[in-house]
């Protein structure tokens, strides 16, 4: 069998188009332009690329984009003051603090200082709790993008066995919550799971978010399963590097029914969902109806 490839890049372009339509309507009917603030601490080159892409795509969708670049040695109190300033800024509807933060800064303290209504990453503890208890929340972008692709490909997810490999707060745990809310039978597996291959082979939906290049191989995939590869790992050296996922695409695509590629899968959907969340946050802030299909 050769898997169907789920084109995240094309899907993301469609989502960004929907966001742009929603933004145009907000402007025309209410004179509101959503604004997204991205805060980048330090000069990690990979982070800089993401931040630039986010800024460009935000403006393409008709929203305002502001980027705050802070020195790697910035004091925690200075970062905190910037968050408070953005919380109180009427022009800003979404705040994203790029992770990871330098070790001298308490990341969860910073994330919990963001106004939950402007928390477009969905990392504030109140949004984490709201998602876990089935209340309206801001949902983390990467798992939201994965869920959109799964619903689009499979339709109703009810009763399917879903295995999420990885238990991070930013992907694994919220992904499991979303799948559970869509009536999947969910297993969260991780590096210490006994006989991981056998657990994975039980999955109709297999989400790989472990951060280990090409760890999920074809023998771990149930024939016909839908495989979502969240990993973005740069491998190789001497200037000859390439991106690979957490899934060994060559062997897994022989067995799976459908699979997301890296690059061009989950990554572009993450940014599209950031824009979607910014629009959603803006609508909720102004008590206006939310556009359909852009959130759960
Ligand atoms: N608070 C916070 N929120 C984030 O969402 C966040 C973060 N911090 N820190 C860094 C990671 C990384 N991240 C990516 C988003 C899109 C691509 C993406 O679009 N990747 C392209 C490839 C890009 C390339 O070629 O390098 C793809 O997969 O096709 C990658 C990585 C969001 N992150």
UniProtKB/TrEMBL annotation:
Keyword Kinase: no
Residues annotated as domain Tetrahydrofolate dehydrogenase/cyclohydrolase NAD(P)-binding: 140-283
Classification via InterPro entries: Aminoacid_DH-like_N_sf, NAD(P)-bd_dom_sf, THF_DH/CycHdrlase, THF_DH/CycHdrlase_cat_dom, THF_DH/CycHdrlase_CS, THF_DH/CycHdrlase_NAD-bd_dom
Gene Ontology annotations for the cellular component aspect, listed alphabetically: cytosol
Gene field: folD
Domain of life: Bacteria
Family of the protein in this entry: Belongs to the tetrahydrofolate dehydrogenase/cyclohydrolase family.
EC number: 1.5.1.5, 3.5.4.9
Name listed for the protein in its UniProt record: Bifunctional protein FolD
Binding sites annotated in the UniProt record for NADP(+): 166-168, 232
Pathways involved: One-carbon metabolism; tetrahydrofolate interconversion
Task of the protein: Catalyzes the oxidation of 5,10-methylenetetrahydrofolate to 5,10-methenyltetrahydrofolate and then the hydrolysis of 5,10-methenyltetrahydrofolate to 10-formyltetrahydrofolate.
Pfam families hit by this protein: THF_DHG_CYH, THF_DHG_CYH_C
One example GO MF annotation: methenyltetrahydrofolate cyclohydrolase activity
NCBIfam families found in the cross-reference section: PRK10792.1, PRK14186.1, PRK14188.1
């Amino acid at each position: 069998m050769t898997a169907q490839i789920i084109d995240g890049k094309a899907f993301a372009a469609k989502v960004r188009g929907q966001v742009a339509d929603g933004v145009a309507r907000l402007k025309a009917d209410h004179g509101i332009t959503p604004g997204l603030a991205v805060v980048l601490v330090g000069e990690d080159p990979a982070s800089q690329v993401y931040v630039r892409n986010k800024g460009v795509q935000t403006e393409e969708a008709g929203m305002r984009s502001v980027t705050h670049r802070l020195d790697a040695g910035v004091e925690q109190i200075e970062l905190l003051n910037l968050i408070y300033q953005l919380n109180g800024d009427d022009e800003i509807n979404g705040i994203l603090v790029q992770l990871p933060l330098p070790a001298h800064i308490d990341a969860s303290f910073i994330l919990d200082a963001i106004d939950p209504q402007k928390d477009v990453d969905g990392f504030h503890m109140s949004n984490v709790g709201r998602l876990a208890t089935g209340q309206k929340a801001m949902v983390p972008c990467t798992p939201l993008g994965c869920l959109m692709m799964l619903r689009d490909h499979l339709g109703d997810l009810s009763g399917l066995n879903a295995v999420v490999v990885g238990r991070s707060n930013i992907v694994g745990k919220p992904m499991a919550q979303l799948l559970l809310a869509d009536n999947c039978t969910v297993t969260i597996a991780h590096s210490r799971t006994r006989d991981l291959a056998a657990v994975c082979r039980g999955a109709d939906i297999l989400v790989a978010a472990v951060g280990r290049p090409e760890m999920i191989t074809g023998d771990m995939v149930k024939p016909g399963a839908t495989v979502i590869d969240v990993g973005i790992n740069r491998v190789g050296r001497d200037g000859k590097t390439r991106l690979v996922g957490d899934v060994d695409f060559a062997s897994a695509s022989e067995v799976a029914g459908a699979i997301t590629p890296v690059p061009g899968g989950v990554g572009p959907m993450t940014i599209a969902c950031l824009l979607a969340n910014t629009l959603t946050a803006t609508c909720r802030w102004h008590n206006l109806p939310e556009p359909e299909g852009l959130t759960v």
